[in-house]
Amino acid sequence: MSSPSERYAAAKQRNAEAKTELAVFAASLDFQMDSFQVNGCKALEDGRGVLVAAPTGAGKTIVGEFAVHLALARGQKAFYTTPIKALSNQKYHDFIRRFGADRVGLLTGDTAVNSEADVVVMTTEVLRNMLYAGSSTLDHLGFVVMDEVHYLADRFRGAVWEEVIIHLPEHVQMACLSATVSNAEEFGDWLDAVRGDTDVVVSEHRPVPLWQHVQVGTELMDLFVDDSTVEHVVDRRRQARKRGNDDAPAVNPELLYLARAQAPGGHRGGRGGGRGPGGRSRDRMARRERGGGGPRSYGHSSRGAGSGGDRVQGGRFGHSHRISRPHMIRRLQSEGLLPAITFIFSRVGCDDAVKQCLAADLWLTTESERQTIRAVVAEAASALDASDLDVLGFYEWRDGLLHGVAAHHAGLLPLFKEVVEQLFAQGLVKAVFATETLALGINMPARSVVLERLDKFNGESRVDITPGEYTQLTGRAGRRGIDVEGHAVVLWRPELDPNTVAGLASKRTYPLISSFRPTYNMSVNLIARFGAQRSRTILESSFAQFQADRSVVGLAKKVRSQEETLAGYEQAMTCHLGDFTEYATLRRELKEAEKSAEMTRTHARRAQAADSLADLRPGDVVDVPTGRNRGYAVVIAADPKAESPRPVIVTFDSNLRRLGAQDLDGPLEPVSFVKLPNKVRTETTKDRKSITAWMHQAIQDRKPARGASGDHARGARQAGPIQFVRSESGSEARIAQLRKALREHPCHGCNDRENHARWAERWNRLRKDTDGLLRQLENRTNAVAVTFDRICGVLYSLDYLQVDDDGTMHPTAAGEQLRHIYGDRDLLLAMTLREGLLKDLDPAALAATVTALVYQAKREDAGIRPSLPTPAMDRAVDGMIRHWSHLTDLEEQHRVKSTAEPELGLVAPMYRWARGSSLHVTLDGTELAAGDFVRWAKQVIDLLDQIASVTSLDPDVRAGCQRAVKLIHRGVVVQSVQEQPQDTEPDEQDFQIPPVGTEN
């Protein structure tokens, strides 16, 4: 029972709160705010900044929307920044509905709508550019919302977020919205240091509980041993960690049994009675059905309960324990788990999944729903040229939508993706197959999320997904206000470890790591505004340096601890017969010598492969044994002078590729020969198919390889089997010497030799690790400023910076041009402009040529030099490559990361498009998807706009850029449902994932 004074104080507080802007804002909502939302909003109203970290779908954007509300109530401006245009468009239309079109603007790389409005939604790069330019649009700015601020960890674009946070005026309040990260407090401490008072509000509560399953054949099995949501498991693990126990959560024993049974040599015998597969889940399901209520959970069905030796291998799970994509969707539909998003880390895999569902005659829609879908699709199609529909894959896309299934990836036309998002949000499309780019903030939640596999291709190799990525992907499951619970499903694969899945689902150890590093543009802008010395100080305030400085303390402590452990290891490996450290050194030297000899043999094979590639000539037909280019191919262009020869080939399936030594296990011999015309055309599919037909004919006619009759002797570099003569090999002699020394050492006869050796190996590993930590300690002090100094060295060498007599550093006239150029090849473009390489190009050629500074080719296509449409373009590209070679030499000298080589794969398609060709003609002969072409076209437009904005440039070049923009900005490049260009998703590598299974 409270006292009168306490009741009076409480009433007074309620009256005060009722008069706040938060009360006004809360009254406008049709739901009650969660406590973390209230705390975040209170911090803003009290004049502080705020970092809100919460799971996907928890509603953290409410805090961002309150910041906008607060700005309007105070007569100030608010900027809402996002990492991608799709999210910018989405928030723009949300705010129009809330505040009215006259008060809301949109700024992306190629779109400007009502830019001086009170509320402006923009991509983060636009705000960064404004800050460097000192734009008047920043006047009266009161709040900045940074949505998806955890994106600052992105290795390609993350630095932009830190630039904005550092350079925003002090009076601007920030609301940073992040996914749940394990070091939110550390990030908040940095924000507090660079921005002033900043509250950190963390919520790990999911408003919709998430259940974890594994799909084994046709059975949907629970991942955890009891009725546990992810939140419960994470909480239990956190409590156990506090008690000093970090054991993994208890996993369904049936899954563990299945994993052991499928392992090589695994036990496949039966088990008794109710402990077999199905027992636990069936019992729990039965209890739930009898008791009623509570969250629904999915275990096994009631069939196949008896014991038997082949239950796991081939009983009710099926022989492969796999399930086809259509069958999987039917299974989810039967359990009431649609709509679902299936993440497949491959564009090709997503498209194939839709085709498989159509081939299986899978229908998820009613006739009424199909009528609505037809109307939406017809409206979208009206914006497209009818002649482009085939090349866009429109009819297949429409058929999928009518069935209730669709793909979603960066290769789709933005218009198609928008329609998929719209229909999925309306519940008309029930199954979407998507790449991981869908997890980047777009509001597209589902009841269930399916992961086909737990590893992905990162452009170089297959890597496991991280706990943070797993949480981001599965966070889509469960729609607040619609679903009582969400479901995450991992498909069973033979190599799947249930404990690994449980670890991904239960860990919350994914820190936000800064990817910040100075760039040429950033450096010259900083120096122009603040001078070199203050610029170094500013960079030292970055989150990257903040983390490095904090880690130094931890590293030093770890070094001290490891030095003590090393002393213990030395004592444990002491041998009474002699110096075991000396003996262990001999063992390591022998192991390294044997490894080196094997590497020498591998390098010799690789060298012979390179020599054989250098000997190839146009017309040679080869049989590539492995890799993506496997099969017969004909050489189109030789590469005899290169250090690493990569001749251009046309493959058996008419693709243009480069062939490198890394694609071979040994030397490559021609097997036949095709006489090619003097000028070989390879631009179109038709051209390449003609070459392929000649190759087929030569092989069928058994035409001998060039030089087979002796007329064209290959010379001294003729490839042959590698011979290793051990008696003459220095490495083999060294190995024999080490083996002899090892046998003669006193410790070789010790009874505890292998035990000592194990301690010695531990000592060696720990010594290497400790030495590495010591190097890190040396490198982390002022690491960002050191990089800045190196970049300034490159800029000074190229006359983009100059130093006055008093030691003041500032940009030259060329440096002032560089200030307006943003991108991965910013300095290379500035060098190209300074020499006037673009002056003699007409607008179409200009548009095509600058693609070399934007386009990123697939790894296997990188470096291919196609024939260019005009001599003027050839001269411009030659000059560009000459500058690139000079620049990379300087970068190596100054120890700066090398600028990417210009890529010419988009030049010809863009030239055709800029000259008015249809999309079909533009893309003919390329492997570009329509969505990719649109995305690259928008980036080219952005670059042309940047060039046109450099006032000191030749007026003819600037005017040419403006005309080039108009030539590109047509047709599919500008069409979208929302009438705004949409997508700059980070490009993901294409790779083929084998189908999940075959339809049963």
Helical proportion, percent range: 40-55%
Radius of gyration over all CA atoms, rounded: 32 Å
How many strand elements?
A: 24
Spatial ordering of strands, largest sheet? 4-3-5-2-6-7-1-8
Query: Which consecutive residue ranges, at least 5 long each, have pLDDT under 50?
Result: 267-319, 709-728, 977-1000
End-to-end separation in angstroms reads: 68 Å
Query: Could you give a short account of the major beta sheet?
Result: 8 strands, mixed
Mean pLDDT: 79
Task: Estimate what percentage of residues fall within beta strands.
Answer: 5-15%
Q: Which outline best applies?
A: globular
Class computed from helices, strands and strand pairing? alpha/beta
Account of the protein in words:
Mean pLDDT is 79; it is low at 267-319, 709-728 and 977-1000. Helix 3 packs parallel to helix 4 (61-73) and helix 29 (843-849) packs antiparallel against helix 31. The chain has 1000 residues and is α/β, with parallel strands linked by helices. Helices cover 46% and strands 11% of the residues. An eight-stranded mixed β-sheet has the order 4-3-5-2-6-7-1-8, sandwiched between helices.
